[in-house]
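Private note to self, pasted from the team thread so I don't lose it. Backbone tokens:
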């Protein structure tokens, strides 16, 4: 049936179903992600200030109508800095997740398609790497390369990859046993044709939601590293750097920690909620 042949009544029914399925949590998450997208693309739309403007006459002001998040020890508006820091923080989250998934797909498919001793060796390597704490691996990489945005992306990406790789391997093993794979082989399709046209697309599709969940997780990990002084150094407005900058004033000016922390938690929850919703939709479509 072509798109033109779909009746208006059917279209209205689909739109109504979408509205019914759009839960309040999902709608709130979409609003947060939309706000985040604006902050990344055009932060000047959300604030007229500059993240680097110093005002020594208004230092360490608590949150108010004029300064929603308060100000830091240099008089810089914390809300403005959080808005401008969204681009760097989201870049770290997307970069780390993309790197982790690229490594996971390579290792997971290699382990899932291999047989015998090769499969056993790759599986044991993934299990050992998965058991290795992500934080310790990140600390090791940062100690070697020094703190920077690129180092955070590499550290968080490599640390997260083993867990994703195990998921990819399990998905490949599951799809390998599907009836349409056996049918394609019985029809005489070559190995690489079966992998490219049938195995790869069907094994990767459920992982789209996992990638969404990974973005929020990567932002949290990167912020944790920055809080320990191992991420992007102040005066960068990156959210983890904001936490690091306010660490020494946590007892006298708690908003320096609370406000960036709430932003990180809110974004992570919103992205995770959308990832869960997408996962349920994909699982429902698969049925």
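Design output:
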């Amino acid at each position: 049936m072509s798109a033109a042949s779909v009746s208006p009544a059917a279209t209205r029914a689909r739109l109504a179903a979408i509205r019914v399925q759009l839960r309040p949590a999902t709608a709130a998450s979409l609003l947060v992600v939309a706000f985040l997208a604006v902050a990344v693309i055009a932060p000047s739309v959300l604030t007229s200030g500059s993240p680097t403007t110093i005002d020594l006459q208004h230092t360490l002001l608590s949150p108010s109508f004029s300064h929603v998040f308060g100000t830091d020890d240099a008089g810089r508006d914390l809300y403005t800095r959080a808005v401008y820091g969204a681009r760097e923080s989201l870049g770290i989250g997307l970069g780390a997740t993309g790197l982790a998934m690229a490594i996971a797909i390579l290792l997971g498919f290699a382990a899932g398609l291999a047989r015998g001793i090769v499969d056993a060796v790759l599986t044991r390597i993934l299990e050992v790497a998965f058991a290795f704490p992500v934080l310790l691996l990140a600390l090791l990489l940062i100690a070697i390369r020094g703190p920077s945005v690129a180092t955070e992306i590499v550290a968080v990406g490599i640390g997260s990859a083993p867990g994703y790789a195990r998921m990819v391997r399990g998905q490949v093993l599951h799809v390998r046993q599907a009836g349409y794979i056996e049918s394609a082989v019985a029809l005489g399709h070559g190995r690489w044709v079966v992998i490219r046209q049938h195995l790869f697309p069907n094994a990767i599709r459920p992982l789209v939601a996992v990638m969404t969940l990974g973005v929020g997780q990567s932002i949290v990990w990167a912020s944790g590293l920055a809080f320990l002084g191992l991420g992007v150094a102040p005066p960068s407005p990156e959210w983890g750097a904001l936490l690091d900058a306010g660490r020494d004033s946590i007892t006298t000016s708690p908003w320096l920690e609370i406000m960036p922390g709430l932003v990180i938690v809110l974004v992570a929850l919103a992205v995770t909620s959308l990832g869960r919703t997408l996962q349920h939709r994909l699982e429902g479509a698969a049925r």
